[in-house]
Structure formats: C-alpha cells, structure tokens
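Appendix B. Raw example, untouched.
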Amino acid sequence: MIKWFKKKEKIDPYVEKMNEGVDEELSKVKSNSKNLVDEKHLSLMGLTVACWMLTIQSEIKKMLPLKNVVRFCRLFLEQEKKRNYIKDYNRLDVQILQICSYTHEIETVEKYVQEKWTYKKAKDFEKEIGYTTS
C-alpha cells in the first residue's frame, strides 16, 4: 500500500538519499507542461541510457544515484539538440527519458550490453556528452 506523505511528515531516509540532487539537476532545464521530443526518439534514447547504466553499475558494483542518471539524461538530450536530432527539450523530456531507461526489458538491455557495450565505450560516451560525476 502506498503511503502519501504530507510535507511535514518524515520521508524514508533512503528515499531522500536516492533523490538528493535531482531537483538541482532538473532546475538546469527549462520547464514546460508538454514534452518537446518525440516519444519514439525518447524510447530509443532510453535504451542507450539503460545500456550505459547497466554497464557502469556492473563495473562499480552498485546503483548509480538518481541525480547522476538525470544528469546523464540531460546531457544526452543536450547533445542530441546540438547535433540537430531534436529541436529542443525541457524538464519533462529529461524525466521521460529517465523513466524510459528503466522500462526496457532487462533481457534486451543485457543483450545489447553483451553485444555492443563495454565499460570503455560507456566512459567514451560520457566524455562525448560532457558527463562527469560530482
């Protein structure tokens, strides 16, 4: 059963820790009530993000903080804009991309990682989009 929290109620410290820094990352992107990137494009990008995440997490043997995934998604969309693959993006697009990265079947992601992804490729991709951990 889901418990809805009021602002004054205490939230689980683990949940707080996982969401730490996400609002700051999202504040770097303009807000809009409608996403600007085609859902099909976001879904395909989500597979790339999922492969990156699985590769990195397998190497470091722990989950990435959510703010790092959001930062990666934001920078990936920024690169797509610079390359003229998309006209623009906003906060909602970043959030949808992040969600898409979690919705791909793990078997599909594992298959792509086995066939096409290496830790070096993931790090090269990070460098290409300007991603660094803080």
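End of appendix B.
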